[in-house]
Amino acid sequence: MSTISKLEAQKRIAELTATLNHHNQLYYQEDRSEISDFEFDKLLEELIQLEAQFPALQDKNSPTQHVGGAITKEFETVEHETRMLSLGNTYSKEELLAFDERVAKGLGHRGYSYFCELKFDGVAISLVYENGELVRAVTRGDGYRGDNVTANVKTIKNIPLYLQGDDIPDKFEIRGEIFLPIKEFEKINAAREANGEALLANPRNTASGTLKMQDSSIVAKRRLNCYFYQLLGDEIDVDQHDEAMHLLEKWGFNISPTYKNCTDINAVFEYIESWREKRHTLSLDTDGVVLKVNDYAQREELGFTAKIPRWAIAYKYKAESAESELMSVTYQVGRTGAITPVANLSPVLLAGTTVKRASLHNANEIKRLDLHNGDVVFVEKGGEIIPKITAVAVEKRKADAKPVSYITHCPECGTALERKEGEAKHFCPNSASCPPQVLGRIEHFVHKRAMNIDSMGTERIRALINQGYVEHPADLYELNHKKDQLLGLEINAEQYEKSSDGYLYVALRKALFAVTDGISLSAIYQYLEETETLEQHLKLKQFTDFIHHQNKKVSLNLAAVDKLKNLLGQLAHDQIEDFLPVSAVMAMFVGNQLSLEALHQLSLQKNTVHDIVLAFDFELHRDQEDKIKKLKGNTFQEGVISNMLSGIAASKEQPFEKVLFALGIRNIGENTAQLLARHFKTIENLGQASTEQLLDINGVGETLVNSIREFFDQEENQANIQRLKAHGLHFEIKSEDLPEVKGNALEGLKVLASGKFEHFKRDEIIEAISAHGGTYLKSVSKNLDLIIEGADMGPSKKEKAEKLGIKMISENEFLSMIAD
Ligand SMILES: NC(=O)c1ccc[n+]([C@@H]2O[C@H](COP(=O)([O-])OP(=O)(O)OC[C@H]3O[C@@H](n4cnc5c(N)ncnc54)[C@H](O)[C@@H]3O)[C@@H](O)[C@H]2O)c1
Ligand SMILES: [Zn+2]
User: Fold this and answer.
1) Which residues are part of a known binding site for Zn(2+)?
2) Which of 121, 406, 535, 550 could form a disulfide with 285 if both were Cys (CB 3.0 to 4.6 A apart)?
3) In angstroms, how far is CA 200 from the centroid of its own chain?
């Protein structure tokens, strides 16, 4: 152990504590991580060592003394009957041997065995069964108390709600790990990608986030799964862990088939090795192996520390790592305006795939790594989809290397970037017209589940945005007046560049293709690939040899290239490798009607050849048209345009709930849009709803209320809605889109149902209420007219309802009420 003064230790302990608390907060509360588990565990280990060296400096609130999670305000808090602990962990076999020695010593060297299984990477859960029925599901929380997430857990298909069998104890607790299978995770991300939503980082965080959702119907769609690994209770009649596991299997609980009893630590090592690679074939993420002393009496003898049992430990597999060189850092602008720096790396093989890029997350990450241009870095592929840089080989850094400096302006639209208090990511505030943000909005708007305008793929939308035809969804409905301009509009933008002073350039290969005659684009492409000179005029000089070699219309083509060189000579212009000023090339074709200088000025305002041609006030001859066509990129054709326009026209028939979803108001997904459309019936009602009215709706929380407010407060959004309305989109619900009406017994009444019901599941009773004309409200307030009281209605709710004098009826009374 290094020598360190008490003062230094004190400082480092404070630092580590703050850092670990920060990462715990992110990990458990926000379901994301800025550092890998390995890095986290290293920091925690450092703190453990320091506290061992200076016991006086250990704070009782130290992260070494507490289970990392926490309880939230969103769910009822429930006390655990037996504390839920964490596990000690190690990445080294030496430490595993040391653990084994401590166990042997603790047990006075009597015989013992280890029960081994994989360490599932998910979220810990505790279930309580009473009389064979699942009554409670609670998260680990701070270890003492957790969140009551029963409703969500009940949606998990292979968690039994009722148990059958004659050996089931009246009451017991069972613990396990809820996880999201990798396939399901990939499906969710594929859908999000298609929707232009941000991708989720990994299955663990997604599982954890899902479990904490307020709307169980969304949880049900996520297809979570669970493996169980612990049984607790006074009436359990077994004294070995493996016997308990067999009982659980017999009662119908999902147990991972990976477990094995190991008679000594060497057998454990074998088990670890046998799963090192094979674990990647399992349906879920695993990050190590857990070994537990099998005998319950021996467990009791060994006992616990404040945070972990002394009879179990996790061996974690270290993620594979490789060395690579940082070529550059580029910045992506997401569809929400968030900026993500990306490290471009020299290609390197890692865990079976070639890695060329790594996410850098945000500016803090670049600072944390102290990244310099050209650094040799270590890349690791952990739980994340894209690999990440874990460290820099500082000793290999060149003396004159400059630190990577973060951009200050949006690479897409040039707007100065902003960073909100407490947020790690920079973002581009120009949501109205920053191209990727507009693209995100329009893609969402036309999506199958929104306005359902197919024939509008990403590339086509991008072309319409880049060339100034579309900025707001309402612009789509005005495209039919611009049909003539759309014909011939260019789709792919990669053949253009803008010089730093704003002039439009076109790819050299397209220029040479357009000015010559009889030479194919692919031949020109090949010529350019093979010429080694970088300088433009040398390339053009050599091109004359190429023309001779091609032996097609030689004198005509030589004259053309001469003329092009001449025109370029008349123009003071920047050099861009493999691009030419579009004005010089166009002057080849229309130089008689428009001067080179006029063309050059025109190219300052325009983004494509098509744009420039639209600005001409003269007719083109047939052969001029042909030449210009060769210069353009892929273009919109008649068929595509009419397809698009008819899709846009047809979308006007989409019902209000789809239109509402299409508007892209933050936090309004498909289900919420439907809920709000049905409740408020018109956009005006929704826009004018009070916070109280909104919060009363089952499924509406504060975040959503804030997003609704924010949206309607912006005049621009209001104006946009008016424009869409003028185009005939539906902003009120039609009666045929409302759910089936079965009666009017509850007409005008605001109703709440609380507790458990015999004839209805939770969503069924809500449906029954609205089918009979009632409105469901989710909390007890003076706005309520009626409460249907089920079994076990919460005592505090009941008390409040009685105080407010709200009428309460039983399930049977409710049934007869709606039967009339
Ligand atoms: N990257 C970050 O920023 C960050 C932040 C906080 C925590 N973490 C990670 O989380 C760890 C701490 O989490 P923790 O306290 O939940 O500990 P842990 O995940 O290392 O171990 C305890 C948990 O393992 C789970 N588990 C999975 N399979 C099991 C099995 N077969 N048998 C028994 N238990 C099993 C249980 O849920 C149990 O609660 C850290 O060591 C770190 O790796 C990372
Ligand atoms: Zn921008």
Assistant:
1) 410, 413, 428, 434
2) 121
3) 3
